[in-house]
Amino acid sequence: KGYAKALVNDALQNLFAQGCVKVSLDTRTGNARARSLYSSLGFQLLEADDDYVHFVYYKNQPVVKKLVEA
To answer: Which of 45, 44, 34, 46 is nearest to 7 (CA)?
Structure first.
């Protein structure tokens, strides 16, 4: 357990170490486990529609807040 969280954390660390300042990703609206994972890691919910949920994570972001409720 916890492999997905570890993989995403590792990817974020590697991206930021290479100079990336923003990571965005999408998941299907019905994929509750992925949505929960991304939210728990600090990804901000940017927007949602009937099919997809769009998340964003900024390097050194202050407080995580939801921009839109899904």
So the answer is: 34
Short-list 3, 14, 69, 5, CA closest to 37: 5
Q: What is the pLDDT of residue 66?
A: 42
Q: What amino acid occupies position 51? A: D
> Looking at beta carbons, which pairs linking 58-62 to residues 24 or more positions away fall under 8 Å?
58/21, 58/22, 59/16, 59/20, 59/21, 59/22
Write down the pTM of the prediction: 0.78
Residue range 40-54, pLDDT digits in tens: 998 999 999 999 999
Q: 28 Cβ partners below 8 Å, 6+ apart? A: 34, 51, 52, 53
What one-character DSSP code corresponds to residue 6?
A: H
